[in-house]
Known about the structure:
Blueprint: E1 3-11, E2 20-23, H1 26-29, E3 37-43, H2 49-66, E4 76-79, E5 86-90, E6 95-102, E7 139-145, E8 151-157, H3 164-180, E9 224-231, H4 233-243, H5 249-265, E10 272-280, E11 298-306, H6 307-329, H7 332-339, E12 355-359, E13 377-380, H8 383-386, E14 391-396, E15 404-411, H9 412-434
Helix pairs in contact: 2-3, 4-5, 5-6, 5-9
Amino acid sequence: MKVEEIERLMLEPLSPTPSCFLSLSHFDMKYIFHPYMQGVAFYPGSRSDVQNESLIHQARLSLSKVLLHFYPAAGRLALSSDGNSYGIDCNAAGVEWTVARADFPLDNLDYSQPSPDFSALIRSGKYGSSAAPLGSPLLSIQVTRFSCGGISVAWAADHALADGTGRVHFLVSWAESCLKGEISQVPRIDRDLGPQQLDYPRASDFSPVASGGHDLPKSGNIAMSGRIFCFERAYIEKLKEMAGVGLSRFTVLCAHIWINMCAARDLPDSTSTTNSMAANCRKRLAPQLPDDFFGNAVLHAVATTTAGELRKGGLRHAASLLEDAVSTSFGMEGITKKLSSKGIAADKLGRNCNMLCSSSPRFRYYEIDLGWGRPEAVRHVGLERLGLDGLCMFNPHPRSPQGIEVTITLPTWTLERLRRLLEDAWSAYLSCETK
């Protein structure tokens, strides 16, 4: 299978944008030097070359228009003039734009599960398992045309630019610009966090290692594999019923996977195990940040127990641990403490007894209609290259409203054991329903 690049350029905003230096906040600095976040959306079809060329031209024009609002995406990561802080130089240098051609039909690419082949669909943004140097594009977009007329649209974004909420806001706004010529929610670019803002972090306090960047902890030389697990609404509702009222879909599913992951790893009862859940802090700050805040506002709530206690307490106990971690981590005192620490608790990641939950089933990935209709599938790219044992990415289920897809990376044999355990749990649920 061959993917050939036919166009690459730096796409600038359609007209002049504000020229300024946006100092990175403490939220942003948690993710500086972090590997670029990569994803790809698949649009099957049998469109003609003429149709696709027209839609690609419109997508490119709409991208240059939406950059008028999201102009930091066209900037570059840089040091301040005094060298004391990192920030985004909003210099309109451009977004990396690539068009490529695949010599095979989209049907030949199995996108029902993660695949290393996806990396060929975002080659321009191949920042992989390390961060790009200062001055690199903060965002890369690649549109790939398949021989059948199908399309993929892939992206790679510097995490210092924005968190998942901000990235999805950008992608959905780009889609709106394509179809309607305007966007429904103009982003807030100002990164001032208000009274709770600490002094802007000094560059000397952050290095690639301290920030969880180039040297994210990994499980030795053990290769990671990825698999997508699909949980439909009925199954999640059953989990919520078992765990108790008032819990979110995200929390109960995190707890369910945590229990089964410990079992799949065959952890001794005395082994300490940690679950780190990424949480959007926009509404947890005082004053609150608006939903349209374009930057980072994510911290991790960390719950710790032993494998034995988790097994003994069951789903209700695991869910309550996660709920308690969120409530204690995200009062203003907890947020300030986390913001004043360096890095992203990197010592908690990548160990073979822990779990890291990120992304969100609320992200509107399936609204990214750029003229080819809604995507049939949206996938993360390159997670296995990060080498993080126990990474779980939660996304919406495209065919089950209120359902959730979870992409999990584990060593191959552990992942297979987890698959069997989760399937057994599903079979047990179906058996109970038919009695």
